[in-house]
User: Which sequence fits this backbone?
C-alpha cells in the first residue's frame, strides 16, 4: 500500500516535472502545458481536399485532440474574414501570389457556443479554442533536430505577471512621452477631417501590416508568418467586439496589405537590430499610409520589456487612427504618418505566447484610437 502510494506520488511528480519543469525553461511564460498528438496524415489530406473545394461547396476539416482530460473535436472551415477581398502580400515592392486557404475557423463538435480559429500547415494545427471553460491554445514548435512538438495550454496557465513588471511599464511611459514631443504638425489646409465625425459603430478599419526580417525569421516561412498574423487579427477583433471604446462600438480590423521582408536588407535603415522602439516607429512612420486607417510594424526585438509603441490618437490630424501623411513638427521638410505603431513579439529575450501578443497589439491599437497612456 505504502509503496503503491509512493509510486503514484513519484509518477505525479514526474509528470509535473516533465510538464512544469520544461515549462520553466523552454516556455517561461507558461506555468503548465500538455504535449498532444493527433492524426496528422488525415489532417494533411483533409486540408488538401478543403483547399480544392469551391467557396460554395466547402468541406469541413476535423481534428481530434486530447488534452486537459478532455476530447476536443474541432470542426473547421476556411476563413479569410480577417483579410480584405483584395488582400495582398508584398515583398520588396512586388506582390506575391499566395493562397491563404490554410486559415480556418469553426466550433467544437459537442459545444455549439465554442469558437475555434487557427491554421493547418503541413498537417500541423495551431490556434485557439474558446470554450465555456475559457480559451485553450494549441501550438507546435519545430526543433532544430527536425522533431516537432505539439502542445496545448489554457489561458490561465500563462504567467501574466511577466507582463506587468514596473520597470518595463515605466520605460514604456518614457517612450510615449518622447513620442508626444515628436508629434507631427497638423496641416491646417488639409483638414478634411472625417475621423471623429464618422460613425464608428460597425466600422471596419483597414490595416497595412509590415513584418520585418526579424519577425519573418522567427516563423521561418510565409505561411507560418501569415497564419500568426491571422491569429493576431482574429483575437484583436474578438477583444474590440466586446468593448465600447470612446463611443466606438464593434470596430473590426482587416488586413489589406501585408509587407513581409524575407531577407536582410543591409541598405535599409530598419535593418539594424539595434534601433530603439521610438526610432523604429519613426522609421516606420516615414512612409505614407493614407490608403489605410492604421499601419503597424511587427518585429522580433528585445526592447527591455517594452512591447510596443504607437502614436496616440488625437482630434484632427494629430495622431492615431486615420491620420494623414503630413509635416513633422520642428523638422521642416520632413513628412510622416501618425496612424502607425510597432509591436515586438519578445520580452527580455523570450518569445511571447500568442495571447500576450494579442493583448499587446490590442493595447497599442487602443492608443492609436485615443486611449490615454497609463
Ligand atoms: Zn500603453
Assistant:
Amino acid at each position: 500500500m505504502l509503496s503503491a502510494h509512493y509510486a503514484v506520488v513519484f509518477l505525479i511528480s514526474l509528470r509535473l516535472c516533465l510538464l512544469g519543469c520544461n515549462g520553466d525553461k523552454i516556455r517561461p511564460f507558461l506555468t503548465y502545458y500538455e504535449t498532444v498528438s493527433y492524426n496528422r496524415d488525415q489532417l494533411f489530406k483533409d486540408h488538401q481536399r478543403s483547399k480544392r473545394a469551391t467557396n460554395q461547396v466547402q468541406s469541413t476539416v476535423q481534428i481530434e485532440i486530447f488534452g486537459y482530460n478532455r476530447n476536443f473535436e474541432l470542426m473547421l472551415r476556411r476563413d479569410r474574414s480577417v483579410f480584405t477581398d483584395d488582400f495582398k502580400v508584398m515583398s520588396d515592392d512586388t506582390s506575391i501570389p499566395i493562397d491563404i486557404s490554410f486559415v480556418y475557423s469553426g466550433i467544437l463538435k459537442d459545444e455549439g457556443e465554442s469558437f475555434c480559429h487557427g491554421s493547418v500547415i503541413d498537417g500541423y494545427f495551431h490556434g485557439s479554442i474558446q470554450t465555456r471553460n475559457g480559451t485553450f491554445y494549441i501550438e507546435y514548435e519545430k526543433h532544430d533536430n527536425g522533431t516537432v512538438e505539439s502542445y496545448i495550454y489554457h489561458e490561465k496557465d500563462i504567467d501574466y505577471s511577466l507582463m506587468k513588471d514596473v520597470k518595463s511599464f515605466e520605460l514604456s511611459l518614457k517612450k510615449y512621452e518622447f513620442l508626444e514631443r515628436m508629434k507631427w504638425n497638423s496641416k491646417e489646409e488639409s483638414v478634411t477631417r472625417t475621423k471623429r465625425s464618422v460613425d464608428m459603430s460597425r466600422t471596419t478599419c483597414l490595416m497595412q501590416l509590415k513584418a520585418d526580417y526579424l519577425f519573418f525569421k522567427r516563423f521561418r516561412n510565409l505561411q507560418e508568418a501569415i497564419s500568426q498574423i491571422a491569429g493576431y487579427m482574429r483575437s484583436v477583433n474578438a477583444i474590440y467586439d466586446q468593448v465600447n471604446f470612446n463611443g466606438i462600438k464593434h470596430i473590426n480590423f482587416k488586413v489589406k496589405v501585408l509587407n513581409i521582408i524575407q531577407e536582410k536588407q543591409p541598405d535599409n535603415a530598419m535593418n539594424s537590430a539595434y534601433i530603439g522602439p521610438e526610432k523604429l516607429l519613426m522609421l516606420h512612420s516615414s512612409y505614407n499610409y493614407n490608403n489605410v486607417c492604421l499601419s503597424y510594424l511587427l518585429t522580433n526585438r528585445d526592447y527591455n520589456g517594452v512591447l510596443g509603441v504607437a502614436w496616440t490618437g488625437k482630434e484632427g490630424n494629430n495622431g492615431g487612427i486615420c491620420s494623414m501623411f503630413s509635416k513633422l513638427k520642428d523638422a521642416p521638410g520632413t513628412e510622416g504618418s501618425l496612424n502607425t505603431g510597432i509591436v515586438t513579439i519578445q520580452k527580455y529575450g523570450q518569445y511571447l505566447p500568442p495571447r500576450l501578443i494579442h493583448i499587446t497589439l490590442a493595447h497599442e491599437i487602443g492608443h492609436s484610437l485615443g486611449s490615454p497612456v497609463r
Remarks:
- Residues 172, 363, 367, 373 surround zinc ion (CB under 6 Å).
- The first strand starts at residue 34 and ends at 36.
- The chain has seven helices and 21 strands.
